[in-house]
Fold these 2 entries.
Entry 1:
Amino acid sequence: TMANVLVIAETYEGQLRNATYNSVSFARQIVDIEGGSYSIAVLSDAPAEHASTLATYGGAKVFTVSHESLAHYAADTWSDAVAGLAKSAGASHVVMSSSTQGKDLMPRVASQLDAGMAADIISVHADGGETRYKRPMWAGNIIATVAVDTPVHVVTVRSTDFDEAAAVGASSEVQPFDWSPADSGRTQFSAFNASGGERPDLGEAKIVVSGGRGLKDEENFWSVVTPLADSLGAAIGATRAAVDSGFAPNDLQIGQTGRVVAPDLYFAVAISGAIQHLAGMKNSKCIVAINKDPDAPIFQVADYGLVADAFKTVPELVDKLG
Ligand code: FAD
């Protein structure tokens, strides 16, 4: 049977997130392997505008699920709506990025569909006519090959391993899916408090400036990292040692037990380059390391390495960047 992939679009504060297009790339790969087609679903209180954008991405259909209770993400309502749509559309694969939202939502969808799940996958291939997924385990030290045996596959995709799909111009049919919550719901959205203010989100940023324990304390961390990030329009990240030492909040942690990022440009400032940190940033397109120890392991993955004192060098760099 041919694939009928359903990609769940990702939105944040009313905007489509780029991670949606990484998931579309994955869907195109499934169609290359299995034949068939993919569609994109957008859930919102007002999905029309997003639907017309998404309709240019080559899907057979764009499904809209419109309801006031979908204005903000909530696990109960969203999983009910996505599972309902997946059944009604006869989806073979239900896909989202392995973002915070995808990690929360998709296991619930899998459970409602009685489907097997491949989580946080980095590639897909055919093996003797069967689709197989690869996913990293143990901080990327092991790559597992996963088979899903149920008729429906639920998949979360690591965005950093799939290029953003480009629009193809053609216009998909937009089809509303009639859904309303089964009951008043066990959970209710009350508020979403984003940290980080105007700074780009770590997962979406093209440039990330990260600081490590070598920056000594909280005050020094921010006084070194902030001007560089500001001059580049970058997001700020940190190592676990920097987070554990109280320099930076937990949600900035990059690595095995933090966020996984792959920006165009990654600055590692006073970071040693432990394997658990590399697990979160080694796919970055260009890595710049500033460390005063020439033997620091970060230099093994860096495209540009500067053996220097960060307290002296970073302000000079900021000066040059104007
Ligand atoms: P350090 O290793 O202390 O390195 C500081 C560096 O700064 C040194 O290389 C030093 O030469 C340099 N330096 C000092 N002063 C200066 C200066 N003035 N100018 C320039 N350079 C200077 N770590 C993560 O980051 N993310 C994770 O998700 C993560 N998960 C983990 C999970 C597990 C199960 C375990 C066991 C560990 C995990 N770690 C993680 C921790 C990881 O092993 C390292 O301890 C951590 O990444 C080190 O952080 P660091 O590079 O900031 O500190």
Entry 2:
Amino acid sequence: MDDLLFKHHFTFKKRYGQNFLTDRNLLRAIVSDAGVDEKTAVLEIGAGAGALTLALAERAKKVISYEIDKSLQPVLAETLSDCGNVEVVFRDFMREDLAAAERAVGGDYLVVANLPYYVTTPVVMRFVEEGKGCRGLTVMVQEEVARRFCAKAGSPDYGAVTAAIARRGSAAVTRLVPRTLFTPSPNVDSAVVRLDFTAGGFAVRSEKAYRETVRCAFLNRRKTLENNLMSAFSLSRGEAKELLGSLGVPAGVRGETLSPEQLGALSDLLFAAGKSGK
Ligand code: SAM
């Protein structure tokens, strides 16, 4: 890869989170972790020099890969010259209409990516909240972010992102990846996380109400959930107590101790009472 990058006068851009992978065993392991097979359509965010794209193309039916940095065009043309099932789109994925990207990939698909660290959570949240055809994501992220994605209720890493992911499906770390396996090496270690939208997850009456409830639960971690409910949904103390009582939640709890399912039940009650999700 170094030769190819040198040949095309490529310089790494920190602002795009460019830390590339080259270890073939790791690349193949990521593709396996994701569960990609010859029937799978894959959406990749950040092709880089194309190392993961190539490993995906060897197994998948089709790969659509977004890359913001047009200076990688000649590098990718060379890396992927033998791949008839890959299309690289040179656009900023964060400015792309997700519905249009989903139409391009066609039907249901998996997201597999070594994500640029500066947009990791926004990229994942886009698929969690809007990814209609998305069956799941297998993504390389900073280890600390991986812990947040998979955290248990009540733990210090548990937060709004964890609860949002848990509503769509299960989350698990598939492998830890030392910083030395990236070029250039970042300052932190990474982990591969698999978010599976076909396993786990639960239904709520209103997605909007769930989002609002989750936001409220983590609004002010030092306040009780009762107080946060009162300020977020203009409830009286009596109304807030009644809601928590009907969930069987003890008075004085903090939002972060509720499981995602309990937050779902709370959001259904708020929605039914006309307080949220409108
Ligand atoms: N997939 C390659 C690999 O594993 O070696 C590169 C991964 S590197 C961590 C992230 C890549 O995402 C970079 O090539 C960067 O230019 C690209 N990128 C950063 N922001 C992007 C965005 N908003 N849309 C599309 N690509 C982006």
